[in-house]
Design brief:
Strand order of the largest sheet: 2-1-5-4-3
Shape: rod-shaped
CATH architecture of the largest domain: 2-Layer Sandwich
Largest sheet: 5 strands, antiparallel
Order of helices and strands: HEEHHHEEEHEEHHEEEHHHEHEEHEEHEE
Distance between the termini: 99 Å
Oligomer: single chain
Number of domains: 4
CATH superfamily of the largest domain: Histidine kinase-like ATPase, C-terminal domain
Helix content: 40-55%
């Protein structure tokens, strides 16, 4: 095998693209440089040999000659030493470099071989990245939305500073799993949302009560797989406690308004209800007095019993009237359930007939032939029917004893039926109707009555909209007005 001579090794080092400087191990003076180093620094080998560190290094404390000498000395005992150094070329250009000092034992003497490469571009990119990261951290710290990356077990791998603030995490506190930050009863729903996270865009938003029960979080998620270290479920979340509280306050206001509407309706019907109760109360008194007379006259016991039983039946009738009024007026918490719309219509019809009797209006009920199952608060839907019916009765009563259109008796028809896959309720009268503005009848402060303010009709629109329905008023071709509202059917549910 042919042995390599010193010139061969120099040719090999000259062929390298990596810059190489050889320093004497004792004096640290330059003894040789390869071609790449000469070209990078702009000096020949002969010009480099007499140069000192101050001649080819940026004059800064961190590039002091003693620091380089210390690294070279350590390479003799600790192996190759890597350090940052800044070389200055003949033209005065600085070249930030990564230098590696390695002690090499040659036959004639020991040398320190320093390999270096230009890292100016890399450091520039790193500085820009650090600056971008700093700015991004500052921006995200002030965001009202948190960002976190979850692994397959819903553990938080990364979380923004704003996210830590939203979750109430201390600076060095481990975030754990995202499900740890929601209420226990909310956790299964959150796990399901994360498992179904789409990859083509964010999921629909969902709300979760926090673990401490004091806050609400709105969360969206999507699955990402950008690279090995950036894979999992990315979530965005924000604190919506104020929004939830505002919505709850509005719902409470709506319930109070609905209660006031029912209470007001009963106030308007007080005379009719009093008249309805007067009949069974008078009958009870007559039957009881009759029983007392028969007892004083030593009449047969069966006659006395018959009178008392008749009084009892009248008392039950009066109790049923009072119960109906109390159930309608009493304030209730929301109670959504599946109900047959025909049943709601029948319950409301009793109150409608009471009111209509005083106004000499004939009421017709057309409940339909097939069940109309809807998911609703049945008291509220019943209230809408009553509001529409009472409004129609008032319009008919304003005719001051005249008959309806075309000389017909004043009539009111309420009914329900199936219409294009939805439940339809209609309240139709043959009164004077309204000449214009029927399309705005259910907007606030619009009314078909001279003394009305439209609040009751606006309340009807609010209730129907909350149930996912639509309400409208249309003129009747033969005269009068018909109010209709549509509600979605329950999906295959039974009462």
């Amino acid at each position: 095998m042919t042995s390599l001579v010193e010139t061969d090794f120099r040719r090999l080092l000259d062929a390298l693209t990596l810059c190489v400087l050889l320093h004497d191990a004792r004096s640290k003076a330059i003894v040789w440089a390869n071609r790449a180093a000469c070209e990078a620094l702009g000096f020949s080998v002969d010009e480099l040999i007499p140069l000192k560190a101050r001649d080819m290094t940026r004059p800064e404390p961190k590039y002091d000659r003693e620091l380089a000498i210390a690294a070279m000395n350590r390479s003799a005992t600790q192996g190759p030493q890597v350090y940052e150094w800044c070389y200055r070329s003949r033209t005065g250009d600085d070249m930030l470099s990564e230098a590696i000092a390695t002690t090499v034992h040659l036959e004639e003497r020991d040398v320190v071989m320093v390999q270096f490469r230009d890292i100016s571009a890399e450091e520039g990119i790193k500085r820009k990245l650090r600056a971008h990261e700093t700015r991004l951290r500052e921006f995200m710290q002030d965001l009202s939305e948190g960002v976190a990356l979850l692994n397959d077990a819903a553990g938080i791998q990364y979380i923004s500073e704003s996210g830590r603030r939203l979750l109430g995490l201390a600076a060095n506190e481990s975030p754990g799993a995202i499900v740890d930050h929601v209420a226990d009863e909310e956790a299964p729903r959150l796990v399901q949302q994360l498992a179904q996270a789409p990859a083509d865009g964010p999921s629909g938003p969902s709300r979760y009560r926090s673990a401490d029960g004091e806050r609400w979080l709105r969360l969206t998620c999507r699955r990402i797989e950008l690279e090995e270290e950036l894979r999992g479920v990315l979530i965005h979340f924000r604190d919506v406690t104020d929004v939830v509280r505002t919505e709850e306050a509005r719902r409470e206001e709506a319930r109070m308004l609905e209660y006031a509407g029912r209470y007001n309706a009963m106030g308007e019907m007080a005379m009719a209800i009093a008249h309805e109760l007067s009949q069974p109360v008078a009958a009870i008194r007559n039957f009881v007095e009759g029983a007392i007379q028969r007892l004083s006259q030593a009449a047969p016991l069966e006659l006395v019993t018959w009178g008392l039983r008749a009084a009892d039946r009248q008392a039950e009738h009066a109790a049923a009237i009072i119960k109906s009024v109390r159930e309608y007026v009493a304030r209730r918490d929301p109670n959504i359930a599946v109900a047959d719309l025909r049943t709601i219509l029948s319950e409301a019809a009793w109150f409608v007939q009471l009111r209509a009797r005083e106004a000499d209006v004939s009421v017709h009920v057309e409940p339909g032939d097939e069940p109309l199952l809807i998911e609703c608060e049945r008291v509220l839907i019943g209230q809408v029917v009553l509001n529409l019916a009472f409004n129609a009765i008032d319009a008919l009563a304003s005719m001051q004893g005249m008959q309806g259109v075309q000389g017909e008796k004043k009539t009111l028809t309420i009914g329900a039926c199936l219409s294009e896959g939805q439940a339809l309720v209609f309240v139709r009268d043959n009164g004077p109707g309204i000449s214009e503005g029927h399309e705005r009848l259910f907007d606030g402060f619009s009314s078909s009555k001279e003394t009305g303010n439209g609040i009751g009709l606006s309340l009807c629109k609010s209730i129907i909209a909350r149930h996912g329905g639509v309400i409208r008023a249309v003129p009747v071709e033969a005269g009068g007005l018909e109010c209709r509202f549509w509600l979605p059917l329950a999906n295959g549910q039974a009462i």
